């Protein structure tokens, strides 16, 4: 059984799409990531054109993130003040990212650029997270128990002006670093079709010094609005959002996010980070390997500005 996707112009198995959406939903609930870093490459693998995959996966990210956010709001593990600052930077970044995306599309290089971005960003972030997580687990085993999170020493983040108190995170820092983090994530959201959680979560922990317990929920809060904004821009400017594809991914994503939230609550923070790191590295390796393979078709008849 296959369904035809009118915008992507391919036929796919609907149960495969439901499964992909469900898997990404589980990851969203477990790690506080929108899941776009995984769902977009997986759509590449099943034959969805990269431009359509980027635009449509941003739509799915909204639903899976919203479902996961509801669970975190009930537990009061969301820093809404920090999320708002991240969101402000994220919206500006998404607007700039769309300008870059449309320029690359006009040049006919958007497919290659998106895939290279995945290899570079996922490879670097995954490797750094993996090394740090291994060190954290090693320290925990040496001490015989899980180490208590320590307050970060005063760094350049604390020396910046425009300070604001974030009560849920027990922080008093400048709004500039979180705004810049949100700005960078917004650019990636527009170009790569991701929520940006795979970069935002480590940045919130290691740069901003936020407690792990509020990082996931706060990340999901910001991702919802930035990914939604990105989806609307893609739909109105590039007409590359495939509604049928999005609906199938959404159904699986919403169900999976609830399951992922319950799984994540049972695992330690170090275990969550190392699992996420391994997944990020695996996806980067797969995309990089595919780029090195000889393509089945040497030439494409599509116009540079087409999808």
TrEMBL record:
Bilayer-crossing regions: 15-39, 51-73, 85-104, 116-137, 179-207, 214-233, 239-260, 272-293
Superkingdom field: Bacteria
Family annotation (Pfam families): TauE (PF01925)
Protein name: Probable membrane transporter protein
Membrane topology category: Multi-pass membrane protein
GO cellular component: plasma membrane
NAD is among the record's keywords: no
Keywords: Cell membrane, Membrane, Transmembrane, Transmembrane helix
PANTHER family in alphabetical order: MEMBRANE TRANSPORTER PROTEIN MJ0441-RELATED, MEMBRANE TRANSPORTER PROTEIN YTNM-RELATED
InterPro entries: TM_pro_TauE-like, TSUP/Inactive_protease-like
Subcellular location: Cell membrane; Membrane
Protein family membership: Belongs to the 4-toluene sulfonate uptake permease (TSUP) (TC 2.A.102) family.
């Amino acid at each position: 059984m296959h369904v035809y996707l009118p915008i992507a112009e391919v036929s796919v198995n609907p149960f495969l799409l439901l499964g992909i959406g469900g898997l990404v939903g589980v990851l969203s609930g477990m790690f506080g990531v929108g899941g776009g870093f995984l769902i977009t490459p997986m759509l590449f693998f099943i034959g969805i054109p990269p431009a359509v995959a980027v635009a449509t996966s941003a739509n799915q990210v909204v639903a899976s993130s919203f479902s996961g956010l509801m669970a975190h709001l009930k537990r009061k593990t969301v820093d809404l003040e920090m999320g708002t600052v991240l969101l402000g930077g994220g919206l500006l970044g998404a607007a700039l990212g769309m300008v870059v995306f449309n320029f690359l599309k006009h040049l006919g290089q958007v497919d290659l650029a998106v895939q290279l971005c995945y290899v570079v960003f996922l490879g670097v972030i995954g490797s750094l997270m993996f090394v740090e997580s291994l060190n954290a687990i090693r320290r925990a085993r040496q001490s015989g128990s899980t180490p208590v999170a320590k307050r970060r020493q005063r760094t350049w983040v604390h020396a910046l002006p425009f300070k604001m108190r974030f009560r849920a995170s027990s922080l008093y820092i400048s709004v500039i670093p979180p705004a810049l983090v949100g700005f960078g994530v917004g650019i990636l959201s527009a170009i790569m079709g991701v929520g940006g959680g795979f970069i935002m979560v480590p940045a919130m922990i290691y740069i901003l010094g936020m407690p792990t317990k509020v990082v996931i929920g706060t990340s999901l809060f910001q991702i919802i609005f930035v990914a939604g904004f990105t989806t609307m821009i893609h739909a109105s400017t590039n007409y590359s959002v495939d509604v049928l594809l999005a609906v199938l991914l959404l159904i699986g994503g919403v169900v999976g996010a609830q399951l992922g939230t319950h799984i994540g609550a049972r695992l330690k923070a170090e275990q969550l980070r190392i699992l996420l790191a391994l997944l990020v590295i695996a996806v980067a390796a797969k995309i990089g390997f595919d780029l090195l393979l000889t393509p089945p078709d040497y030439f494409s008849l599509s116009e540079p500005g087409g999808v």
